[in-house]
Request: fold
Amino acid sequence: MSQRDAFYVTTPIYYVNDVPHIGHAYTTLACDVIARFMRLDGRRVHFLTGTDEHGQKVEKAAREAGMEPKAFTDQVSERFRELLRVMDFSPDDFIRTTEERHVRAVQTLWTRMVEGGWIYLGKYAGWYSVRDEAYYAESELVDGRAPTGAPVEWVEEPSYFFRLSAFQERLLRFYESHPDFVGPATRFNEVVSFVRQGLQDLSISRTTFRWGIPVPGDPAHVIYVWVDALTNYISALGYPDVDGELFRTFWPADVHVIGKDILRFHAVYWPAFLMAAGLEPPRRVFAHGWWTNEGQKISKSLGNVIDPHALVARYGLDQTRYYLLREVPFGQDGDFRHESMVRRINHELANDYGNLVQRVLAMIRRYCEGRVPDPGELAPDDEALLARAHNCLAAMRAHMEAQALHRALDEVFGLIGEANRYVDAMAPWALRRSDPARAATVLWTLAETIRHVATLTLPFMPQSSGRILDLLAVPAAARTFRALGAEGQPLRPGTPLPPPSPVFPRYVEEDAG
Ligand code: MSP
Reply:
């Protein structure tokens, strides 16, 4: 993947037909971790999220709530903003498709596609699923429903079409010359074989409802919600002002992170629309898997929807962030399980990470008068642990470039495991009497390793990691990846440290008394 200073990462924009659930929190969490990592790594980041507010599905939800669509979308969109605060997400911008800047961008994109000869007026007769906001061919239906299980309805109306069929060859050539375009790789194969089978022109306007962006010059039609929604990724960069600073700096996007259910829209339709308008496709689309709840599909009718606010209240914010990204290889499906959440909180966070920090800082407090000890003369064991700490960033960086977030976490937790083995083997509590200078060296090595660990876990667990860096008295300006490694900014011997306090509490079952 080519390197540039700027880095643009996006979440899908969320339908405001319902309040946020774990699926939404998950996608934005992954993007937040990527964005924070890249910022700490010195990249200039633009991280975008927002809400998808037009279309039949949202119009229907507003009607059911007895509200005007605009008032309804204002209300639900606010719930998505609230989630950003609750989960400590750090977007640079939040776009709503009802905003003026977006409407202008969509109408301009439409006009460009018309000018290129890629849009024609026809008549659509076929199946439509409001829940999926997608058209389906008769041959795709399974027992009278969409392949996703969503109900479909027969639609017959005048419609504008996009000449998607004309893009088959161009798309295939593009995929071939961009072997990293879709991740994980298995998903890329699905996309390529879908396009190889041949593409039908796509209906891109509707006349039977009003809640959408009018087609320029033909206001009886509203623009298909997916043409509208996908455009958010460029309207937030100031499109149509392609010479503007934002657009020039950040387009094409480095990665659109999405769920696997909306891959076709992002990896087939979106690059085709962009090509039709003379714009570059994004660099990469990464599709993550879906969560189930204790083995069951999550659905409103089953009443097992997971509310992210409840997770944070019950398990803690960083615990939730950690669990969601550690439990499942990013890209695969996952099953949310309370038991496994508790195991990870207690073993990996409280014991492995938390106790390491607590033990080391408590010893520094007792043996070194609460000041960063003097490294003195390093022995090969110390150098080996420090080398591992110094090399951790490079290993994580490679995984983060490929959105292998779980692998990046494995690296840093491998380092934690190494530090725990080292502390047991060196036994500084015994050295303290036999060889106090050696005890100081060991504790310095551990403190320096913990500084690396905490800086590297900042993107994943910003608050807890920040507290550990507080306990090490690391100044704000040194909380970046530049401060790591052999050439970084090691802890200064003699620096006074605040009294240690535990950072990762154990989870105690509510009914355990
Ligand atoms: N509005 C469209 C996206 C337009 S992007 C130009 C949309 N919105 S959505 O609100 O329905 O879904 C947003 C994301 O949530 C999708 O990426 C979807 O995969 C994800 N999830 C919804 N349920 C999920 C799970 N149970 N598990 C994980 N992610 C899931 O689609």
Remarks:
- Residues 338-483 form a domain with the Isoleucyl-tRNA Synthetase; Domain 1 fold (CATH 1.10.730.10).
- The radius of gyration is 26 Å.
